[in-house]
Amino acid sequence: MSQDTSDTEKEGVAGFMARAKEQAGEGAKEAANDKVVRPFEHAVSGFMGDAVSEGRLFSIADAVADYQENDIDVTDTTCEYCAVGCRFDVLTKDGEFLGTRPRPEKAPINGISTCVKGKFAHGYTHSDDRLTQPLVKEDGEFREASWDEALTRVAEGLGGVKEEYGPDGLGFVASSKATNEDNYAMQRFAREVIGTNNIDNCNRLCHSSTVSGLSSTFGFGAASVGMEALEETDCYLLTGSNTTEAHPVLATRIKQNVKDNDADLLVFDPRKTQIAEYADQYTQINAGYDNTWLNGLVRYILKNDLEDREFIEERTTGIEQVEESVEKFTPEFVEEHAGVPPEELVSAAETITEADSCVFGWTLGMTEHAKGTENIYAIANLALVTGHIGNPKSGVSPFRGQNNVQGGGGDMGPLPNNFPGYQPVTNEEHREKFAEAYGMDVEEMPDKEGYRLTDMFLTDDIHGMFIQGENSLVSEPNIAHARETIENLDFFAVQDIFLTETAELADVVLPATASLESNGTYTASTRHVQLVKRAVDPIGNAKPDWRITKALAAKFGYEWEYDHPSDIMDEINDLVPIYGGISHERLEALGDGEGLQWPVWDMDHPGTPYTYEEEFQTNDGLAHMHPADTVDPSETPDDDYPLVMTSGRVLYQYHTGTMTFRDEGVMSYSDKSFVEVHPETAEEYGIADEEVVELTSRHGKTEMLVQVTTRPNPGEVFVPMHYLEGGANNLTKEDPLDGAARTPEYKITDVQITGTEKEADDLQGSVPRGEARRPASSDD
């Protein structure tokens, strides 16, 4: 019997998942060929629902069958996975999670849609190994402690480092998974209680180059358009975005527009992801040369008088410098370096300039580079020379990866250079405003920019860290280096929902609430601020992040007058102009769940569906173009490391797997890391599909399974970012960093691939670590 036959004839969940995968692949291919919008990710969602129903895991129908409708509690909330901002009803009974159900009238972004994770992957909330009681480490082992003891330990640990090294001897990491209110409280704690601007979050590792590039060009480091553009534009240019797997609901909107309205879809990417199958033009580029082909587009447009000259002259500055900098990016130069055939460069340029509207969308394939900010300059320049920005259907749209990285990771100011609302910490007026609000003397408010997250792991000046909801040991580049940095700290505390790989290294671990146990707000990629509502009570003795931070501040003698997250949002709208008209009461009163898109300047302002209609958010109201002419990535292949590895997401996992690794249905589909290898590369190196190989870089090595596929270029390989064992960050490097954003070079790592004698079963799957943590007693 062949391997394929044996897989699909297995019994139970494993067999059904194998059959589902096969059917989904056939369905996606048929849909792509027929230009029918039958989205792969939603087809798989359906199969997965059936599969896990066989295993009695997730089926909502089975879960609610024993109850009458009026016996079930229904709570509308916002999804805790990617930053699309999907909303749905959460169904619970007696505190038990039953399932989710989209309600279109209260879900303006997703309507009836959710992805696999939004539909099924919430079981982690009541996982047996949830943290339910504070833990303190003694003699290398954890024991449970009361909240008072644990918070006292943290206060003593942080206070001791501060006393010996000063406030800047400490580093704080906030969480883009936590609410806006949680993140606001954390930045206030760092600045008011400790007296440092050494606070950052995972945005540094993903879209900080987007923020630096867009803010210095346009004024706001965020998407300029909302869902209207994503649903109705005439043209899309997508690059560095595995849209169907990372942002399935957005992919559905895009494909629907392509089908119904004949919108043009252009995809430029090193890896042929599923969205490319729906493209009018897919161009497979060489990894690491994004600004090369973007500059080539700009040059061709300018040389052939295809630009919007009136828009350029009236609304921009810097065109002369850009014209000079793109001169070398001829079609021949672009083909030599980026691998883009001249005819495809010309076709894309003419499609974009002939369109009445265009959306430029990207994710981490553009940003996670040592020259990520330059990549964003280049795509911003393209939007400006074509005039495709500042109207309802044209603009820039970076798709954000974590549920609240736009709001909690940026807007709320857990940043070393900005107060909430992107107000620079070096500006005396801003310091005076926040000092007055916090009851401080302005001299006590730190006035110099702090360390970026990536620099915290490089400097010798950080002696203690507090990490909230981030699994840094897996997410930081070069896992071995990250571990060494953490282990050398004088004091280390973690606040999370599980005993993650990072938390295992801590001196104290504080149990926080999961999304379904929390109240507050998230902000979507489209700048929508939406309510998050508690659907189930907190497990054990876990507490909301903001409440933990408030209690920790009290240990230092600071009494914050917050009784509910709505109180924190009231303080935010008083201090943050772009949130000036946002409150929990107003969001609830909207009734339709639509949320408000910032900037919302006051309580009478309706919000801003798209920005820059009349002027840009700069000192002179003009967009400022910047040259972006660096060509080569930070490292290039040689005889020892002849292949280029890039990394990214897969549909069934979420970031470092803290939540998704605990869902049995999800893990039955993708429990181990893998490397995608082109057939030509596999033949050259003598490796086969499903073989265990070793990947070695200049920075580390790891083992994983081979998937032979035509998705990557020959000479390039792809490894997911989610895994500790076999994951990409065993191989990536912590230096160099993007000069402006300090983002690592995640997307380009030179590697060597070699076969091993191991079998697939010899590899360790990604399984939850740590024992179940149930409280011995409760003091809350």
UniProtKB/TrEMBL annotation:
Q: Which InterPro entries match?
A: Asp_de-COase-like_dom_sf, Formate_Dh-H_N, Formate_DH_asu, MoPterin_dinucl-bd_dom, Mopterin_OxRdtase, Mopterin_OxRdtase_4Fe-4S_dom, Mopterin_OxRdtase_prok_CS, MopterinOxRdtase_cofactor_BS
Q: Which GO terms describe its biological process?
A: formate metabolic process; respiratory electron transport chain
Q: Where is the composition biased (Basic and acidic residues)?
A: 770-780
Keywords, comma-separated and alphabetical:
4Fe-4S, Iron, Iron-sulfur, Metal-binding, Oxidoreductase
A Pfam family for this UniProt protein?
Molybdopterin
Q: Which residues form the 4Fe-4S Mo/W bis-MGD-type domain?
A: 72-129
What SUPFAM superfamilies does the record tag this protein with? ADC-like (SSF50692), Formate dehydrogenase/DMSO reductase, domains 1-3 (SSF53706)
Q: Name the GO cellular-component terms.
A: membrane
GO molecular-function term, one example from the UniProt record: 4 iron, 4 sulfur cluster binding
Q: Has the keyword Iron been applied to this entry?
A: yes
Q: Where is this region: Disordered?
A: 729-780
Q: Where are the annotated coiled coils located?
A: none
Q: PANTHER family of this UniProt entry? A: FORMATE DEHYDROGENASE H, RESPIRATORY NITRATE REDUCTASE
Q: Which family does it belong to?
A: Belongs to the prokaryotic molybdopterin-containing oxidoreductase family.
What NCBIfam families does the record tag this protein with? Answer: Fdh-alpha (TIGR01591)
Question: By what name is this protein known?
Answer: Formate dehydrogenase subunit alpha
Q: Which organism is it from?
A: Halococcus hamelinensis 100A6
